[in-house]
Amino acid sequence: MVSLPDWCPAYNPQKKDAETGEEVFCICKKPDSGELMVGCDGCDDWFHFSCLKMPTKYNELVFSFYCPYCQAGVTGPGATDGNLPKTLWRRKCRVSDCFKPVAENSKYCSEGHAISYLRGLVDRVEVPGHEATPVLREMLREPDFDHFKGVGQNGLPTPSEQLAPGLFSNDAQLQELESQLQKVRGGAKRRVETQLEQLAQYSKWVHAVNELLFGDGNQEHAESTSGSRSKASRAQKRKKAVKKKAICGYSASLVVPCPAEQFVSEFKELEDEPTELRGVCCKLRCTRHLDWAGTQENGLQFQLESLESSEERLQLLVKIREDQLKLQFYKKLTQIDTTSIKIPLKNES
């Protein structure tokens, strides 16, 4: 339980007037006299707006009401489960002297109040030496009302080059950020992506070479160790223990030296199994280059993730700086004396 407001008396369970027998309500325990009341969703009692210190103009904004006793845990569900409810209110129309709830998917109670609110914003804009409406149109540059409804969702609108010449191109801080972003995108990130593509192509080539060299042999070996039904368990264990035969395939350049068929032909022509051919490691059990493909791929992926993180950070910094410049421009436009400055508008030739 929590304490009651100072203006609220202690709870009284009385339901009827002792003398008249009339049903009584509210914290005042008086009969219904026609005064505006609101029903409690917790205890089902009714309460006068005036007794609750609530202005009657909030009448339509009440969504789910709970009296002071239910909110304190004296009555209602909170008295048993300890979960104290709160009164919920509908969102108010943005027009200051309107106390109606907003319409669905809107900040206003009606289209009329939406137009009235926006007209008031336009009337407050002052651009010395120019009419506010055409300047606002140039700032927004929205072709119709449907486009206008989306204004603000993507930040401040970018003023035209005529209205704000060199706003972005003359800012050294923004240019430096964009230069860094371009280096990440077109330089380091692209190099890592190219290396990953090259590694994937080379790994595919090594796999093709091993299939041509040992594919049939591995299959024959698997068949020879299958055995009869009486030896099935021992054969299965043997197959699991034997690792598939394959050359290492490591190459420092990761460049495919020749078609897989040509490489295999050259490999088989040699009397002894070579340890290296065309710069490719041909050892069957190479401990020096153990899991070279996986190690290189993990390293490149880590580099790529770091560069993508840097790219996202720089993109955010560029957007923040652009928004700062736009905000500074719009504030300056309404503060400086522009009586001697001509602002070119779209409808001017």
UniProtKB/TrEMBL annotation:
GO terms for molecular function: zinc ion binding. PROSITE patterns: ZF_PHD_1 (PS01359), ZF_PHD_2 (PS50016). GO terms for cellular component: Set1C/COMPASS complex. CDD domains: PHD_SPP1. Pfam families: PHD (PF00628). Residues 23-73 form the PHD-type domain. The keyword Zinc-finger applies. Keywords: Metal-binding, Nucleus, Zinc, Zinc-finger. PANTHER family: CXXC-TYPE ZINC FINGER PROTEIN 1. This is LAME_0F12970g1_1. It comes from Lachancea meyersii CBS 8951.
